[in-house]
Every structure is written in structure tokens, then in C-alpha cells.
Specification:
heterodimer, A: two-stranded antiparallel sheet, 5 helices, 2 strands, about 35% helix, B: alpha+beta, Jelly Rolls, 6-stranded mixed β-sheet, 6-stranded antiparallel β-sheet, 20 helices, 24 strands, about 30% helix
């Protein structure tokens, strides 16, 4: 068995065409403050918000003071998600026009655009590509792998 | 602006359980606790309405009824009730085998259900056997939970309900449908039995359909738009590393995508009306109605839980309605056609093959549907408000919601789930990724169905449910379901579904069957009923192969018990069976020659209900000879305690006898001049008897130790009526007695005795 076919396949996959960036119009950037406007009941000890009370004392609550690599990833994803609105704006267009960290509290690292393009070149669809660029093994988020 | 505020796990077409145990006639309250959830009716009732225009409740039941009508199920089976008789200890509901309990200690507790009502069972219990055992155990061995916590739908029961989502719903349906077919075929095997088994065969068919009703729950769920996607996990806790907390967290998260409305509308925390957008009718939804991709390659709008009342009207949802109906009818019909169809033929021709095609199981909702499902709209359909934001247009506002959902999911902290810190971190990462993924796909590839077809990434280590094969240990097993199976769950199934198990029990040990006959102590209706159902298929009315009633051939014709009746040919089967199990007819008893100094003794079974009980002498046995001699003065023929079984204090027993006396003389106890014949009741110790009153005669021997009436020696039937004293007897003995202190040396021969309890 030879490795040639696999190499050929990888080569082929890595050369998928990437769409041209599209970006126009206005859109609202998400902010962490939005969570305060949801009208959720208070969380445990008055902290954050109760999201999902369960029957045996279990609940999901929102600790809105949390800031770590997960909230950074979610913030980046939410930012792109709020921006994308075909046909006005596509993912690549948004990645090129959103705040780049540390420019804003809700931002994406510069590496995300490059990682997104790599994911696209591997043959993934735009939705999977942007999610994998942020949450995947080769995440563009600093410290995500750890 | 409002995001999701959810309670509990993913729901399904709505199920309902109401209890009447508060003791207030006509009042209902929501079932509390696992036991009520299993044993109370699953009926809709007034006063239980959701906060929207629908009055749709008990939807699973309604769907069954719709399919039963569409499929032409015989009218007698539409809306048919079935009474499950549970033989159980006082104050409990777990089926018990009478032979494994103290004689007379069990009670009969009925669980009445309409067949269609049972479609709700999977929302109340983990399995049919779990329900049979009244939810008394928690099938999740690893969980160490009490029954109530284990069966709380908003908690653990819902946490493991990935089986209610495609494609596991298909696996689960097929498994249970297979069992229903197996049960149905068992009914067909006995359908050619004689007319005396008519009720047995009819009950058998209902039992088979009950199993199918349970199965149909999963088929119905597969056609709720909220269930046309691959929820994470499996019903096996191993999927979640054996951790209940992980299962709960995953189930709860799934509930945020689907299942909100049923809980939110009832939540005191949240006034107002809510929506479950993956199921709700939402004409203002900027993404269009929730839709699924059918196997015809087209997208079809669909609704789900709590909106059956819209679906059933067809219209925009005609494809969903027709598909669900076709598949349900196919399953129902296949089971019924596998029986002997004693209820009559189907009114329509049904293509049962449809059940096994992709058309019944291939539907998956679109990415847009999942995206919308990951949000919650406030307000009642059709005027629900998409979860808001600053953008002007409805579509932009909803899209904006995807971003908010992603942000919020990143700060979700499971509290009280006992997740370790790593799992909490993993949960938040997975949740935020999932929200982003459905959001992007909803926007960029809204008509795709790859997410609902197994394309969702893992959540807390649990894959989409299509990754898991096989059934958990607690799934209902195929037959045989033996009432003596060492596995308590299987045994409970065997005890609850006795009629569908007749064929598989035909070779059972006859001695064990015979031991079910009542043999002393206080008889109970449970013992009697169980004996009749177990013995019935084996019983021939008669004395043996050379002398029996050929009209009543037993189902199990290779393994026969003989009733011992000499009067076969005159008795109806039911009466003979009743007597065999609890009456006083003896197979090998009768009047036997006693020891010279002993009283005449014969034993019988317990007479447990109104009816005529006949003491029949064994063939060839002599007549009961009440012989007196000068020294004893008293002769007994003792019917032991058995004759009085079920006879309560204050009741009147009609007593008939006829005598062939060698000495033609009459007795007159009032005058004390003649021999006295009568009945005597005592507690088993001679000499301490309490004679009981013979009524219907003006003269009776009030001054004597024994009560008796006037009588005469005549071959004609004579009657006395005896009133049972109020006293209770632990071990009562009934004696026929003959007293004569004046005229020794004569014999009275009792030919037959009949006792009738009015």
C-alpha cells in the first residue's frame, strides 16, 4: 500500500475554492450587556440569572461575570453570527470587518480569518468552517487547545 | 428581550396523569410521585389547559384514536378499555404471584386503561415492566435513586429520553412492535379455541394492542417536529460515563431546544404564554415554518408537541398528518392482523409494509428548524414574539438571537448536577459551539438537514443518538414472559399479560397449577382469579380421559387437568372452573368412609362468591352415612373450613340436601323428640361449636346445642337457610350433624348437598 493516493486526496481537499468576501450594510454588534436585558430571574444568591431550574435543585444558571477562553470563543462566534446576513454579508466578509482583539471586548483574533480560510480550503462548508476555526482542534482562539 | 427560560427535559406529544387520591370526589390533581404516575389514569380533565388556544392534551392518545379510526380497527376496539388485574399485597401495586405469597394474602387491584391511553406510558415509566411494577424500582442501577426521583419526567426520566428522538425512536418502536407482534401471534394461536375461551381470546388481543400502543408512542414522537433530530446520548447511562449528572445536564440542554412550552406554560415563575418554536405554529417566523425533509425530497412544514390539534386539520400540514397516520395505521394493523382478529376484521385494506420504509422514519428537520428551536419565543401561537433585539426586521432580530444564545450558552453553569470542574468546562464549551453551529447553519444553509441527521457534535461526551446501537438492560424483553420468572420485571409482565402468555405456558407443571387451587385459610379473590386464569387453558370438565365434557376442550390439549366433576355435561365451563379453583367440588375427595371413630370429613375449595356449590361424592364412593349409635349421639360430616370460604358473618347460606334414610322418621328439634339434623359452625375445635341459626323455619332448636330445622327423610331436595353468625372464624368448620338422644341405631344417607350463597 502506498501513501500516494492519500497525499493526492489531501492535496485535492486543501485546494477548494474560497468564496470572495462580501460585506455591506449595517448591523448591531452583540454586547455582554444584552444578557441583562433578557429579563431572566436572578440566579443563585442574586448572582447572574436562572436559565433552567430543575426539579431536584438542579439548574442551569448564567454567570454573566464569567470571562475565560469559552466566553472569548463564544463572543467571537456571536460577533460573526450577528454580522453574517446573506446576501449582504458572508462569513469571510464579516471576519475582515469585525473588531480584532484586543480592539474590543467582543472581538475575534486576527488568526480566525486565516483559520477559516484553511477550513474552507479543506472542503468544509462556511458554517462548519467558522465553527471549527473557533472551536476546532486548530482553533484561532488563544489558549483554546489547553 | 427574553431568552430561553426552561425547566427540565425535552417533552413530547403531550401526556397527562391525574390522580384522585386526595379523596375528594371529582377532584383531580397532577400525579405526585412514581407510584401514582404508574397506577392512576392518564386522562385529560377539565381545568387543565395550556396558556394558548389549544385544548390539546393527552395528544398521544388522541393520535392513537385518530389512527384507529383511519385504519378501520373494529369498532369494539376503538375506545376499548382493558382492566389489568394486579394481584398484589395490601397497600402496594406490584404484581405478586399468589403461589409465592401466603395464601389469601393478596388483593386484586385493577388498573383500568383505554388501549389508546397506554400510548402515554413511556412518559410515565421507563418501560412496560417498570410500569407493571408500579415504578417501584429505579432501572438505573448506577444512579442510586429512589423511585420518585428516578421517575420524575423533568429530571431523570426525561434525561434518558433520547429514545423519543429519531433515529432511536425507530429502534425502540421496532423492538416493542416486535414484542407486540409476538404477543399477537400468541393470540392467533389460541383463537381457534372453543367459545368458552371467547373472553380469553378477546383479552389477549387487547393485551397485544396495549404493547403496540406503548410502541406507537415512539412512532408518534418521530412525527413530532421537535423530535425529528438526533438528540445526544442513549437511554444507557454508560453513554454518559455512567454519570447521572451528565445525563441530566445533556437532557436539560436538549430541553432548551425542544420541550419548553409544556413546562413554561405551567411554571409559576413565568407568567404569560410561551412557545416551543420547533413545534409551534409560527406564521410570523421569518425563517418560514419549521419544516422537515421528507423522503420524497420535498420540504414539508410541520408542528409538534401541543399542536396536534392543528396538525389533525391537515391543510399546510397534510403531509405530516398523512405520513403519521399511514405509519401508525400500518403498525396497528400489522399487530391486529397477526391476532386471530376475534374482534372482527379491519374495515380497510392496510399496507403494513409502509411501516418498514424510510417514509416512516427518514424525516429530519432542517437546520433552520434547529436554529429556531434553540431559541424561545414568548407569546402564544400564532402571535408569538421572536426573541428580540435592536435590529428592525423580524428576520434580523431572530438572527441576532442566535448570537445572544451563543453568548449566553458560554456562561451557563450547571448547578446541582454534581459535574466536576472539567465537565462543567466541557459543557460550556460544547454548548457554545452547538449554539453557534446551529445559528450559522440556520443562516447559511437553512434548508439543509445534516445537523438533524447526526451532524451535531458531541455534548459532554455524548454523541448524537444515531451513534448508539442496542438497548439498555432495562428495556422490555421479548417473550417468554413467565409469571414465575426469577427476574421481577419479567415476572410482572407475565402476571399482567397472562392471556398473551398462554401458549408459552402450555407445558407448565400440572402439580404447580393444581397447587393454585384454594386449600384452606381465608380465600381471596386474587387467589381465585389467578387460579382461574392459569388453570383455565388446561381444564377439562370431568373425571378423566374416559369421562369428560367434550364441549369444552382445553387450549393446552397436551397438558390437561380434570376438574373432577361427575356432573360434567351439565355445568357451564366458567362455573366448573370457578368451582375447581375455589368451589367445593372435589376431584378426589367426596364422601369417603371415615375411620370408625372419626367424623365424616370432606374438603373443598373456597367458595368465594355468590353461586351454587355442589358437593359431589367421588364416583363410586358411598353416600354420606350419618350413622348414629347409642353411645355417641352425634354424627358429623365435616365440610371443613373450605365450605365457608368467602361466607361472611350475617350472610344467609341456602342449604339443600336430600336424604335416603333407612328409618323413615321425622325430626322435630323443637319438641326434642326426634333426631335433629342441621349445620354446625365452629372454630375447629370440637366441643366449642357455635351452631348457627337455621332460618326459614318457625321452629328451631333454640334450647339445644345445635340449631336445626324440621326435616324428614325423603329423596326429594329439602332446603334450609342458615344465617352465618357475626363472629368470625379463623379456621371455621362446617358440620352436618345429626343428633338424636332418644333413638339410636339408625342411619341417614345424604345423597347430595348443595350450598348456595345468595
Amino acid at each position: 500500500m502506498t501513501h500516494l493516493p492519500l497525499l493526492f486526496l489531501l492535496s485535492a481537499c486543501s485546494n477548494h475554492e474560497v468564496e470572495a468576501p462580501i460585506y455591506s450594510g449595517e448591523w448591531d454588534k452583540p454586547t455582554w450587556d444584552m444578557l441583562d436585558d433578557l429579563g431572566l430571574p436572578s440566579g443563585p444568591d442574586g448572582q447572574g440569572y436562572t436559565v433552567l431550574p430543575g426539579p431536584d435543585g438542579q439548574e442551569l444558571w448564567a454567570d454573566t461575570s464569567l470571562r475565560d477562553e469559552t466566553t472569548e470563543a463564544a463572543a467571537c462566534g456571536a460577533l460573526v453570527l450577528a454580522c453574517v446576513n446573506p446576501p449582504e454579508r458572508n462569513v469571510l466578509g464579516c471576519l475582515q470587518n469585525i473588531p480584532i482583539c484586543p480592539e474590543d471586548e467582543i472581538c475575534c483574533p486576527q488568526a480566525c480569518e486565516e483559520q477559516y480560510v484553511q477550513e474552507r480550503r479543506s472542503g468544509k462548508e462556511p458554517a462548519e468552517s467558522i465553527v471549527d476555526a473557533i472551536w476546532g482542534e486548530d482553533s484561532c482562539m488563544p489558549g483554546w487547545a489547553q | 428581550m427574553m431568552w430561553l427560560l426552561l425547566v427540565g427535559n425535552a417533552s413530547a406529544w403531550q401526556s397527562e396523569c391525574f390522580s384522585t387520591r386526595q379523596g375528594v370526589t371529582g377532584s383531580f390533581y397532577l400525579c405526585k410521585g412514581a407510584e401514582e404516575q404508574a397506577t392512576e389514569r392518564w386522562i385529560p380533565t377539565e381545568g387543565r389547559r395550556y396558556k394558548h388556544a389549544s385544548t390539546a392534551i393527552a395528544e398521544h392518545w388522541e393520535i392513537w384514536n385518530h389512527a384507529a379510526q383511519a385504519g378501520g380497527l373494529p369498532a369494539e376496539l376503538q375506545g376499548a378499555e382493558i382492566l389489568f388485574e394486579v394481584y398484589t399485597r395490601p397497600d402496594e401495586y406490584i404484581p405478586r404471584h399468589p403461589a409465592q405469597e401466603k395464601a389469601g394474602s393478596l388483593e386484586v387491584v385493577g388498573r383500568l386503561r383505554e388501549i389508546g391511553e397506554v400510548t402515554q406510558l413511556p412518559d410515565m415509566s421507563y418501560s412496560l415492566q417498570d410500569w407493571a411494577r408500579a415504578n417501584s424500582d429505579c432501572p438505573l442501577d448506577e444512579a442510586d435513586l429512589d423511585g420518585d426521583s428516578c421517575h420524575n419526567f423533568l429530571g431523570h426520566l426525561g434525561a434518558l429520553n433520547s429514545t423519543h428522538f429519531l433515529p432511536q425512536a425507530q429502534d425502540w418502536y421496532m423492538h416493542l412492535h416486535g414484542i407486540a407482534l409476538e404477543r399477537a401471534e400468541a393470540c392467533a394461536a389460541i383463537s381457534s379455541a372453543g367459545e368458552h375461551y371467547e373472553q380469553t381470546v378477546l383479552t389477549c388481543e387487547k393485551q397485544a394492542l396495549v404493547v403496540e400502543a406503548v410502541a406507537q408512542h415512539y412512532l408518534q414522537d418521530a412525527w413530532s417536529s421537535g423530535h425529528m433530530w438526533e438528540r445526544w446520548g442513549s437511554p444507557d447511562l454508560e453513554t454518559f460515563d455512567g454519570k447521572v449528572a451528565n445525563a441530566l445536564a445533556v437532557g436539560s440542554f436538549a430541553g432548551t431546544w425542544h420541550g419548553a412550552k409544556a413546562v413554561l406554560d405551567r411554571s409559576p415563575l413565568l407568567p404569560g404564554q410561551w412557545d416551543d418554536p420547533m413545534c409551534a405554529h409560527a406564521p410570523t417566523n421569518p425563517w418560514g415554518d419549521v419544516a422537515y425533509l421528507g423522503t420524497d425530497g420535498d420540504l414539508h412544514p410541520a408542528l409538534g408537541d401541543l399542536f396536534w390539534y392543528v396538525v389533525v386539520q391537515g391543510g399546510d400540514y397534510a403531509h405530516q398528518l398523512d405520513s403519521l397516520t399511514t405509519c401508525s395505521v400500518a403498525g396497528m394493523a400489522e399487530v391486529y392482523q397477526a391476532t386471530g382478529q376475534a374482534h372482527g376484521p379491519l374495515d380497510t385494506v392496510v399496507d403494513t409494509e409502509a411501516l418498514y420504509g424510510e417514509a416512516c422514519w427518514g424525516q429530519r428537520v432542517t437546520n433552520a428548524a434547529l436554529g429556531v428551536g434553540s431559541l424561545v419565543h414568548k407569546g402564544a401561537t400564532p402571535n408569538q414574539t421572536a426573541f428580540g433585539g435592536t435590529p428592525e426586521s423580524e428576520k434580523a432580530r431572530e438572527a441576532y438571537g442566535f448570537a445572544i444564545a451563543t453568548l449566553l450558552s458560554a456562561v451557563l453553569v450547571p448547578k446541582g448536577f454534581s459535574l466536576d470542574s472539567l465537565s462543567r468546562k466541557e459543557f460550556r464549551r460544547d454548548a457554545s459551539e452547538l449554539h453557534a453551529l446551529v445559528g450559522f447553519n440556520a443562516k447559511l444553509n437553512g434548508k439543509g438537514t445534516q445537523l438533524a441527521s447526526g451532524g451535531l457534535p458531541r455534548l459532554l461526551g455524548a454523541e448524537a443518538n444515531g451513534h448508539y446501537q442496542g438497548l439498555p438492560e432495562w428495556a422490555d424483553p421479548p417473550g417468554p414472559w413467565s409469571p414465575t420468572d426469577p427476574d421481577p420485571g419479567v415476572q410482572a409482565l407475565g402476571l399482567m399479560f397472562l392471556e398473551t402468555g398462554i401458549q408459552e405456558r402450555c407445558d407448565q407443571d400440572l402439580d404447580a397449577l393444581e397447587a393454585l387451587r384454594w386449600s384452606g385459610g381465608v380465600a381471596s379473590a386474587a387467589d381465585q382469579a389467578f387460579c382461574e386464569r392459569m388453570v383455565g387453558p388446561h381444564l377439562r370438565i370431568g373425571l378423566g380421559a374416559d369421562s369428560y365434557d367434550p364441549r369444552y376442550e382445553p387450549i393446552c390439549s397436551d397438558n390437561i387437568l380434570y376438574s373432577g366433576h361427575t356432573n360434567h355435561g351439565t355445568l357451564p365451563f366458567e362455573e366448573a372452573l370457578e368451582q375447581y379453583c375455589g368451589g367445593v367440588v372435589l376431584q378426589d375427595g367426596g364422601f369417603e368412609e371415615p375411620e370408625a371413630s372419626s367424623p365424616w370429613t370432606f374438603k373443598g375449595g373456597g367458595a368465594v362468591g355468590p353461586g351454587v356449590y355442589t358437593l359431589v361424592p367421588k364416583e363410586g364412593a358411598g353416600q354420606l352415612d350419618l350413622g348414629l349409635n347409642a353411645s355417641s349421639g352425634v354424627a358429623y360430616a365435616i365440610a371443613s373450613q373450605s365450605l365457608l370460604a368467602g361466607v361472611q358473618g350475617g350472610e344467609v347460606v341456602r342449604f339443600e340436601f336430600r336424604m335416603l334414610g333407612e328409618t323413615p322418621r321425622s325430626g322435630d328439634c323443637a319438641s326434642g323428640s326426634g333426631p335433629t339434623f342441621g349445620l354446625r359452625l365452629d372454630d375447629g375445635e370440637y366441643g366449642s361449636g357455635d351452631a348457627f341459626r337455621i332460618v326459614g323455619f318457625e321452629e328451631w332448636c333454640s334450647g339445644l346445642e345445635y340449631w336445626g330445622g324440621s326435616w324428614s327423610i325423603t329423596p326429594e331436595w329439602q332446603a334450609m337457610e342458615a344465617k352465618i353468625p357475626v363472629q368470625s372464624y379463623e379456621d371455621p368448620i362446617l358440620s352436618f350433624y345429626l343428633v338424636d338422644n332418644t333413638s339410636p341405631d339408625y342411619h341417614l344417607l345424604i345423597d347430595d348437598v348443595r350450598l348456595e350463597k345468595p
